[in-house]
């Protein structure tokens, strides 16, 4: 369903910056990942400064129907710090590459966050009571005269203002030689995997000092290297299945039941290359930048530079559906190569019922494709158009030389520095979160749609 | 009130109580560990009404504090007023049983199980069983997993209506949505089956067992294999075939290697649980398949069980089964592609010789031992050598010695020092089995060569190896073969080798006895006190301290004392220090 999208909470910046539209931001403020938790009540973002910001959805209020379901900042913490690897003389950036929530196991929430090298498990919990009463000092900490202490006092817990505490629970380090690009929690609730350019490791959530290597594509001689792992994810229901994508545009489905080391894939999803469309850029633009299982577990969604593809797990030979995200860029690949944009890694997302897919583009545009009706829409996440409750207007890019209609934007005027790489869709409702450089936009279906 | 004179005794307790909420985790931990002291001072009444409510709400704390708390509460019965009031301990333990940290939860469950025994049957139904139910139907899976461990302790002591409820709760948890809970239930299935009446084992447990063993999650199915062992021991032999075997067969051929691995790992237990008949008909072919499994981890686990499996085969057909069914698989494993499989096999294969007897060993096993002795992987060779004693009893080690020697020499010169270290540790054992003659002829040079190895750990191990050899072959042998070589190194140009002489003397003096020590070793040590390297000189002091007790008092006074006194005025600080220490320890001052 692609009813008009309305701004729910527009323009939540992850930092309390000045409100003017062209507020300057630093590199560290750029959002690098966005992720809803399993109920959609919480939304976490990570940025290049190593910070994680958690937003919580406000409970619906009966009095004011318009305030329902807004997301407000719940907690902010520093997840990773910049480090230096003295052995290799390498700087390790604090940038958060991925965040994944764990299934909820008690009143607290848990999430995994990772930078290039180290994965951390965080606990987010609430506290609304605090102990009161000392024997040897008063509440201000002044020491009492010992002679006045004639009886023992046990501290009592008194209610206090709600406090959100974030504490590090585990640090999973020293297992990756290359940069971690993905983490994914298994449906067995006790293991997760982390993937870097050449290897995938399997961890137990309780054990930090060892992990098992399940995929290793490092060639004996690094000069023979032709392919790297770009993304990886576990199947949502079958604990033994996972998929990883490669820079050559292929997807490999592996079954952990077959062997301890999954060097041999069970299925290889690959679309034969069209020889007529072959060019210098073919290999670069076919590199898969993201792969996501559908909620049903039946389909895979992948994103490469120009397209989004839906694959059926039962058909390896070609994708079920291919969606052009911004085909008008095909003629501009040369300049996109020169300004390095061609290496941008766009992510993609499914809606809760697997009927719509979403992915980002340039000029702060993002695209949605309805798989049933085959309708698609381009929307813009910008401060100007995102006043609260405003309805987003569909945008159109007209290809160079094409007929230009009113309000159309020419390819040549697209701003390639404004890119939407990270998007997330609420697990059940039509609420989406869009990260545009340092701004987070949350949109939802137009309200009152049930009244029609 | 108690008045001013009560302050002195109150003060330490007051500190402990205040530190329960100190900023510093270590202080909180200390206080929690002395919780019984606090409770004792407060008395049973205030412990129940004030301390426990406070503790119930402290689940925000660090894991280590919570772990200590969970443990303490298991021993708190007397401090709350005895079994009559033991139920007061349930609320804090209940909240600890829901935290996310597994070790804390497990400890809380352990304490709950402990105090369940202190509940009267009435209290168990009024207080304990409702708690189990609350946990079992909790919103979060942490509480439901904790519940799984509590059913078996209350089941035997409650009325039959409550028993029926408990069984129902357990059934529900076995089909819980979250794999965490199903895993907890599967791991407690065997334990729960043990306390159930046999009829209910058949009607309740078997269907649950079958369901868990075909769960969609590998991690649940593999736990069912463990339950299989305990369930099979409970059932009469005639029911095993229909109730357990279909599931076990299915597990042995499971699509997931982790489940098959579990079957291989538990094979001996399974074998004992199902008895000889089923073993012959079912387990033998299953074991053959596991030995030929396509996953190396499974083959290694099965290879580890070869000896135990063969030992436990029914005696009447043991030899025949091994010769026709097991041995062919073992022969293949000897040349397996995976080194872990080969080394697992090497660690048990020698054990087969006692089962098969002399003739079969020589004809069938010996070629395998010899192949493994020549294996490219050092671990395989080491495992064979470390188990030589089994073969020695059956056919004598002489049969092997021709192949053994090159294998030992190669390991002794391996480029990896850890491999060299491992083989040194087997030297005394080998020496004992090969006899002094063979040793002198073939191995003695190796043992001496290790003394000048460039890795300190090897030189150190070689030194203690010499001690063990002397213990075995006697002082006379030492005097003739070892001591001259060791003492010869005292003139080596390399100071590390000169120090090795001292280390050897330290180790050997006691085993060699007073005579050799005084006549042969002492002069060398004394002479080395003039060494130009300070490290050698202070080791001389240390050596004198060490061998002093072996010497007679005359030698001590006339020979050792002057030298130590000279060293005590050495220009080097360390030499002085150790010389003075030796003087005072030997009471020469």
UniProtKB/TrEMBL annotation, chain A:
Record's GO cellular component terms: protein phosphatase type 2A complex
Keywords attached to this entry: Repeat, WD repeat
Record carries keyword Metal-binding: no
Coiled coil: none
Designated name of the protein: Serine/threonine-protein phosphatase 2A 55 kDa regulatory subunit B
Family, as annotated: Belongs to the phosphatase 2A regulatory subunit B family.
SMART domains assigned to the protein according to its UniProt record, in alphabetical order: WD40
Organism from which the protein derives: Kryptolebias marmoratus
Assembly, per entry: PP2A consists of a common heterodimeric core enzyme, composed of a 36 kDa catalytic subunit (subunit C) and a 65 kDa constant regulatory subunit (PR65 or subunit A), that associates with a variety of regulatory subunits.
Molecular function per GO: protein phosphatase regulator activity
Automatic annotation (TrEMBL), chain B:
Pfam families with a match to the protein in the record: HEAT, PPP2R1A-like_HEAT, VPS15-like_hel
Alphabetized GO MF terms: protein phosphatase regulator activity
Residues of the Phosphatase PP2A regulatory subunit A/Splicing factor 3B subunit 1-like HEAT repeat domain: 276-357
Segments annotated as HEAT repeats: 12-50, 89-127, 166-204, 205-243, 244-282, 283-320, 326-364, 365-403, 404-442, 482-520, 521-559, 560-589
One cellular component term from this protein's GO annotations in UniProt: nucleus
Domain Phosphatase 2A Regulatory Subunit A helical: 89-270
Family recorded in the similarity comment: Belongs to the phosphatase 2A regulatory subunit A family.
Name listed for the protein in its UniProt record: Protein phosphatase 2, regulatory subunit A, beta b
Organism: Kryptolebias marmoratus
């Amino acid at each position: 369903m692609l009813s008009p999208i309305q701004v729910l909470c527009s323009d939540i910046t992850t930092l309390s910056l000045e409100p003017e539209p062209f507020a300057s931001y630093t590199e560290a403020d750029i959002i690098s990942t966005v992720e809803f938790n399993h109920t959609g009540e919480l939304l976490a973002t990570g940025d290049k400064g190593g910070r994680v910001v958690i937003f919580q959805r406000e409970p619906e209020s009966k009095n004011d129907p318009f305030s329902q379901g807004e997301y407000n900042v719940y907690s902010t913490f520093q997840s990773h710090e910049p480090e230096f690897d003295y052995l290799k003389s390498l700087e390790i950036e604090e940038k958060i590459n991925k965040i994944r929530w764990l299934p909820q196991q008690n009143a607290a929430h848990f999430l995994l966050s990772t930078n290039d090298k180290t994965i951390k498990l965080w606990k987010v919990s609430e506290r609304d009571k605090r102990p009161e009463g000392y024997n040897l000092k008063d509440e201000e900490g002044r020491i009492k005269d010992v002679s006045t202490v004639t009886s023992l006092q046990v501290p009592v817990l008194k209610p206090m203002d709600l406090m959100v505490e974030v504490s590090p629970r585990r640090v999973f380090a020293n297992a990756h030689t290359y940069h971690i690009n993905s983490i994914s929690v298994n449906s067995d609730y006790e293991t997760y995997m982390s993937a870097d350019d050449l290897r995938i490791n399997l961890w137990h959530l309780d054990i930090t000092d060892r992990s098992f290597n399940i995929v290793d594509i490092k060639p004996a001689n690094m000069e023979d290297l032709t392919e790297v792992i770009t993304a990886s994810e576990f199947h949502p229901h079958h604990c033994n299945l996972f998929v990883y994508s490669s820079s050559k545009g292929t997807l490999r489905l592996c079954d952990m039941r077959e062997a301890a080391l999954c060097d041999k894939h069970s299925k290889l999803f690959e679309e034969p290359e069209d020889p007529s469309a072959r060019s210098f850029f073919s290999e670069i633009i076919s590199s898969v930048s993201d792969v996501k299982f559908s909620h049903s577990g039946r389909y895979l969604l992948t994103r490469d530079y120009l397209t989004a593809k839906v694959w059926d797990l039962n058909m390896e030979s070609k994708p079920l559906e291919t969606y052009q995200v911004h085909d008008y860029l095909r003629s501009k690949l040369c300049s996109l190569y020169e300004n390095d944009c061609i290496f941008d890694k766009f992510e993609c997302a499914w809606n809760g019922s697997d009927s719509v897919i979403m992915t980002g583009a340039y000029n702060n545009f993002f695209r949605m494709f309805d798989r049933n009706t085959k309708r698609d829409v381009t929307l813009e996440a910008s401060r100007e158009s995102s006043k609260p409750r405003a309805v987003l207007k569909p945008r159109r890019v007209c290809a160079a030389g094409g007929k230009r209609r009113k309000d159309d934007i020419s390819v040549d005027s697209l701003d390639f520095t404004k890119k939407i790489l990270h998007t997330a869709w609420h697990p059940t409702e039509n609420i989406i979160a869009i990260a545009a450089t340092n701004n987070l936009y949350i949109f939802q279906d137009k309200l009152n749609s049930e009244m029609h | 009130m108690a008045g001013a004179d009560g302050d002195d005794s109150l003060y330490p307790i007051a500190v402990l109580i205040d530190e329960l909420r100190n900023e510093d985790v270590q202080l909180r931990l200390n206080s929690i560990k002395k919780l019984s002291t606090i409770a004792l001072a407060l008395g049973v009444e205030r412990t129940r009404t004030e301390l426990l409510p406070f503790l119930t709400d402290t689940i925000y704390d660090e894991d280590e504090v919570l772990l200590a708390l969970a443990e303490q509460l298991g021993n708190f019965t007397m401090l709350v007023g005895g079994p009559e009031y033991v139920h007061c301990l349930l609320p804090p333990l209940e909240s600890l049983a829901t935290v996310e940290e597994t070790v804390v939860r497990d400890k809380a469950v352990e304490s709950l199980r402990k105090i369940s025994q202190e509940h009267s049957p009435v209290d168990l139904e009024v207080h304990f069983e409702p708690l189990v139910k609350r946990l079992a139907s909790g919103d979060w899976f942490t509480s439901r997993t904790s519940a799984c461990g509590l059913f078996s302790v209350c089941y035997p002591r409650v009325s039959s209506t409550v028993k029926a409820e408990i069984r129902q709760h357990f059934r529900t948890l076995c089909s819980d949505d979250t794999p965490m809970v199903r895993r907890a239930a599967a791991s407690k299935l065997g334990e729960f089956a043990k306390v159930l009446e046999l009829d209910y084992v058949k009607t309740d447990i078997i269907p649950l067992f079958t369901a868990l063993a075909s769960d969609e999650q590998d991690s649940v199915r593999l736990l069912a294999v463990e339950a299989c062992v305990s369930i099979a021991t409970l059932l009469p032999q005639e029911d095993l075939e229909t109730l357990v075997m279909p599931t076990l067969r299915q597990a042995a051929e499971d699509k997931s290697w982790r489940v098959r691995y579990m079957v291989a790992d538990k094979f001996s237990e399974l074998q004992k649980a199902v008895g000889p008949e089923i073993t012959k008909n079912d387990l033998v072919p299953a074991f053959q398949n596991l030995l030929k499994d396509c996953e190396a981890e499974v083959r290694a686990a099965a290879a580890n069980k070869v000896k135990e499996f063969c030992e436990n085969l029914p005696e009447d057909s043991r030899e025949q089964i091994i010769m026709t069914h097991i041995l062919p698989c073992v022969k293949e494993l000897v040349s397996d592609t995976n080194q872990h499989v080969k080394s697992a096999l090497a660690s048990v294969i020698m054990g087969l010789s006692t089962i098969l007897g002399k003739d079969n060993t020589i004809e069938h096993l010996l070629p395998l031992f010899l192949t493994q002795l020549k294996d490219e992987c050092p671990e395989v060779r080491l495992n064979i050598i470390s188990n030589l004693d089994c073969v020695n009893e059956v056919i004598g080690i002489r049969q092997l010695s021709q192949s053994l020697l090159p294998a030992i020499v190669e390991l002794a010169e391996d480029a990896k020092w850890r491999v060299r270290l491992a083989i040194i540790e087997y030297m005394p054992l080998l020496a004992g089995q090969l006899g002094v003659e063979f040793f002198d002829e073939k191995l003695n040079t190796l043992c001496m060569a290790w003394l000048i190895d460039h890795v300190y750990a090897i030189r150190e191990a070689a030194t203690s190896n010499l001690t063990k050899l002397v213990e075995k072959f006697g002082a006379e042998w030492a005097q003739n073969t070892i001591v001259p070589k060791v003492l010869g190194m005292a003139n080596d140009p390399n100071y590390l080798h000169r120090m090795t002489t001292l280390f050897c003397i330290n180790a050997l003096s006691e085993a060699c006895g007073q005579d050799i020590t005084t006549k042969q070793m002492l002069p060398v040590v004394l002479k080395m006190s003039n060494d130009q390297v300070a490290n050698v000189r202070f080791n001389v002091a240390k050596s004198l301290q060490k061998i002093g007790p072996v010497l007679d008092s005359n030698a001590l006074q006339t020979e050792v004392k002057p030298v130590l006194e000279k060293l005590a005025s050495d220009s080097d600080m360390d030499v002085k220090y150790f010389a003075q220490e030796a003087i005072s320890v030997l009471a020469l001052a």
